[in-house]
Amino acid sequence: MSKVRVAVVGCGSVSHSYLPQLKKSASVDVVAVCDNQIERAKKHADEFGVNAYFDDIDKMLGEVKIDLMVNLTSMNMHAPFNKKALEKGINVWCEKPIATNLSDAYELLDIAKQKGVGMWGAPCTLLSPQYKQMSKIISSGQIGKACTAHGLYGWEGPSWGQWFYKKGGGALFDLGIYNITTLTGLLGPVQSVVAMAEAAIPERIVDGELTKVEADDNTAIIMDHGNGVMSVVQTGFVYKHQMDDWTIQVIGTEGTLAMEGYDWDPKGVRVFTSESGKWDTIAQDQGDYHWAGGATYVAECMAAGKQPIFYGEHALHALEIMVATLKAAETGRRVKIESTFPWAEHVAGITK
């Protein structure tokens, strides 16, 4: 495949980060943009030099030859739009999560398998040099057995998009998925979870209107990765300020790793080992990594005929962890996780 023909659906705020990444790749030809507001689609087409623009996804999928669809719509539209593209034999990269319930997610992966195409989901934190360096150090045994980890990420929450605060939205699905993806990538699939999740602020002003909060805005999770390995994730829309000298920490029997900055925008990795007896900072250069570069990376893998280090099963696994988190919080019980993903293959793709 020479150039991968990419169509972007959803011309909201996130698209302003995705489209520059796609446009600068020599492997990508952005052939169409689509948004339910035709004026916004046209503006994006003009701004980014795209020939075709639509306000109807069915029309776009029917009229334009597409290799990869990039779904940047609101969460509630992820599954139905992903399904439309997959059923036409089109590869899909979707902003997180790939669906808001497990049955839809399983259906998407089944369709992708039947059609012989890929279904991948954000976040792309697994691409950063900092994440890769941490994965390599853990795999090498340099910090001994990695036994526990912590992830912390939140902000005060959006003042736009009421769907953020409705059922199917929430801080967990919007933010917690970053640390969940990162820690499962570093420590492996999760077997069960216990959790607490609440709406700490029951009403908010969103889009200029008083909005009742139905989804979580303050969540804490303990994830059991098996073999005595556990991790903790805290996330929320109640974090007015947060220290970001580190937000991901992995503690082993012979050392510790701490990611400076956020996993979606890492600044370096601090390493302490029993052998060195001191903290060293490494991997301070992000290289060409960008948090909105996942679709571009997948397109470049498609063009080169390479297997991405992402797996659709990982996106589904992260979703099941989040669904289980809400169930565990509601029931006060530990909830078992049924899904898994090719973790060994993921690690091998990074360390080779």
Automatic annotation (TrEMBL):
InterPro entries noted in UniProt: Gfo/Idh/MocA-like_OxRdtase_N (IPR000683), Gfo/Idh/MocA_oxidrdct_glycsds (IPR050463), GFO_IDH_MocA-like_dom (IPR055170), NAD(P)-bd_dom_sf (IPR036291)
Keywords: Oxidoreductase
Pfam families hit by this protein: GFO_IDH_MocA, GFO_IDH_MocA_C3
SUPFAM superfamilies: Glyceraldehyde-3-phosphate dehydrogenase-like, C-terminal domain, NAD(P)-binding Rossmann-fold domains
Domain (Gfo/Idh/MocA-like oxidoreductase N-terminal): residue spans on this chain: 4-117
Positions of the GFO/IDH/MocA-like oxidoreductase domain: 131-257
Keyword field contains Oxidoreductase: yes
PANTHER family according to UniProt: BCDNA.GH03377
Protein name according to UniProt: Gfo/Idh/MocA family oxidoreductase
Organism: Paenibacillus spongiae
